Amino acid sequence: MSMRFSTKARRGMVVLTTAAALALGVAGCGGGGGDDKKPESSASASKQNGSDPSAQEGQAGEPLAELRGSDGLLLQITSAQRDAGGFVTVNATLKNDGAKSVVVPAALSGNETEIVRNGRSLGGATLVDVKGKKRYYVLRDTDGRPLTTTGFSTIKTGESLSVFMQFPAPPTDASEVTFQLPTFASGTIQISG
Predict the structure, then answer these.
(1) Which of 66, 78, 79, 186 stands the most exposed, by the fewest C-beta atoms within 10 Å?
(2) How far is CA 110 from the centre of its chain?
(3) H-type alpha helices, 31-142
(4) Nearest Cα to 120, choosing from 82, 83, 161?
(5) The CATH number of 54-190 is which of 2.10.25, 2.40.10, 2.60.40, 3.30.420?
(6) H or E segment and range at residue 73
(7) What angle do CA 89, 91, 95 make, to 5 degrees?
(8) What contacts 121, CB < 8 A, 6 or more positions away?
(9) Beta bridge partners of 92
C-alpha cells in the first residue's frame, strides 16, 4: 500500500467518525421529556382521506340534499357553510350504491383546461343563485388547482368518500341555492352561517 492511499483512507475515517458523532449529538439534543406530542390529525386533512376538511368529521343527521348520479353514485350533501373569508364550503359524501365498483367519471372535474390539467376532482360543481341570476364556480388556488377533494378514481361497492368543495359566497340574502355537478341531478340546498 502506498503512503498516499493510507493517508486518504485515514482522513476519510476521521471525517466519517466526526460526522457520525455530530449526528448522534444532534439527535440526543432533539428529544425532551416526552412533552413533544404530535397532534392526532391536522387541521387540513381528515383521518380517512387526504383532502377532506376536518369540519366535516363527526357530522351526523339528515343530509341537505341527496343527488343521484350515473352508475349508482350518490352524493349526500351534509353541510353548506358560509365562512367569514367570503366563501362557502360544501361538505358531502360520495357513495357507490351500485352493484359493482365504479370509476368516478372524469366529467365531475368539469371541462376547464386549467382544472382538468390538475387531475380528477369535483371542479365541475357550481352553485346557482336563482334569485340573483348568478352562477358560482369552484374556487382555485394560485396554481389553478380547484379547492375541492382531488385524487380519487374508483369507488368500490358500498364504499363512501367524504368530499368538499369551496365556492365564492353569494350575497348574504341568498341562503337558498341550487347545487349542480355534472352527471348528477341538481338539488336545492340551504347555506348556513
Answers:
(1) 186
(2) 17
(3) 113-116
(4) 161
(5) 2.60.40
(6) strand 73-82
(7) 155
(8) 108, 109, 115, 138, 146, 148, 149, 150
(9) 77, 163
Q: How far apart are the first and last CA of the chain?
A: 80
> Which of 105, 106, 122, 123 lies closest to 114, judged by CA?
123
pLDDT per residue as tens digits for the range 45-100: 333 444 444 344 445 578 899 999 888 899 999 999 999 889 999 999 999 998 89
Tell me the Ramachandran region of residue 129: left when phi exceeds 0, alpha when psi lies from -120 to 50, beta otherwise: beta
Residues 6+ apart with CB under 8 A from 110: 116, 123, 124, 125, 138, 182
Closest CA to 92 of 162, 179, 177, 152: 162
Neighbours of 139 (CB within 10 A): 18
pTM for the whole thing? 0.67
> Residue 69 phi/psi, 5° resolution?
-120, -165
Place of cell 343563485: 129
Domain positions in the chain = 54-190
Nearest-angstrom CA–CA distance, 95 and 73: 6
Report the largest interatomic distance among the alpha carbons of the chain, rounded to a whole angstrom. Answer: 90
